[in-house]
Amino acid sequence: MQPRNMSMSGVVDLAAVKAATEAKAKAEQARAQRQETGPGAAPASPLVIEVTEATFESDVLQRSAEVPVVISFWADQAEQSKQLNAVLERLAGEYRGRFVLGTAEVYANQMLFQQFGVQGVPAVFAVLAGQAMPLFQGAAPEEQITEVLDQVIAVAEQRFGIVGAEVDPGEAAAQPAEPAPPRPATPQELALSAAHEALDAGDLAGAVQAYRNVLSDEPANTEAKLGLAQAELLQRVEGADPQQVRKAAADAPADIDAQLAASDLDLVGGHVEDAFGRLVDTVRRTAGEDRDRARLRLLELFEVIGPEDPRVAAARTALARVLF
């Protein structure tokens, strides 16, 4: 089959990948880093890589935010696919880092084979900013292959702001880049790490204070918010008698403290829907300060579970119904 003109039609959604705007930001950051290190710096990776399911995230998805990645699916029994790989490997050297070639053996990578919807080998795809698009299947004249590669590079730059750094293929093979020295941790990162360590060690009071210290300097830190919500929840249920707490809640439905304590135990015990439902009902049956306390406790438990959990979304909807 002949190569087709590059377009965004037929794009395969690879899920959990960077959006185009994020890709542009990463590309700009990568270019700035390359400028800092200078043109003579060793390349970060070879121009031809072997793609596996285990390395797909780092070698393809993440890298595709900085350079176009062309993936060639091949099989040892298909001589045509091995011949195509040889052409693509030579072109990767000639293009000097404007794209990276990844080769994936289909029998060793069945999940990738299915995810990309490959019908047969050889099959060639491009991955740009975490999105895959089919290029061609079967053998093709080298002139047409280079046309498609030029289109891939143009789309990467125009749509996503992705431009691969020029690399000397000889140096890439002979002098693998040394890993950059680790960046020193910032004071905020050190404080967050100390908070995590206190939580892991069971020092709940220390963890609560440490997370609050982080949030005092960085109120939007989502990791610290989650850690604080977890530490405070564990602190509230520490030493509680589950039987007594549940009996008190059942005997006194109007007792706000009893309902809050029972909802905490529900959540810690893994009964997430029960915890959320109890607090939504408490909000519905109360008013004034008691209603505010129940609503705020529910929001705290949302933080523990995480906003992406569908149970949180359902409980938010239920809460909105009783509030408005």
Automatic annotation (TrEMBL):
Keyword RNA-binding carried by entry: no
GO cellular component: cytoplasm
Assigned keywords, A-Z: Redox-active center
Presence of keyword Transcription: no
Signal sequence interval, chain numbering: none
Transmembrane regions: none
Molecular function GO labels: protein-disulfide reductase activity
Thioredoxin domain ranges (all copies): 21-154
Stored SUPFAM superfamilies: Thioredoxin-like (SSF52833)
GO biological process: response to stress
InterPro entries from the UniProt entry: Thioredoxin-like_sf, Thioredoxin_domain, TPR-like_helical_dom_sf
UniProt record similarity statement: Belongs to the thioredoxin family.
UniProt-listed PANTHER family: GEO12009P1
Protein name: Putative thioredoxin
Lineage: Bacteria, Bacillati, Actinomycetota, Actinomycetes, Kitasatosporales
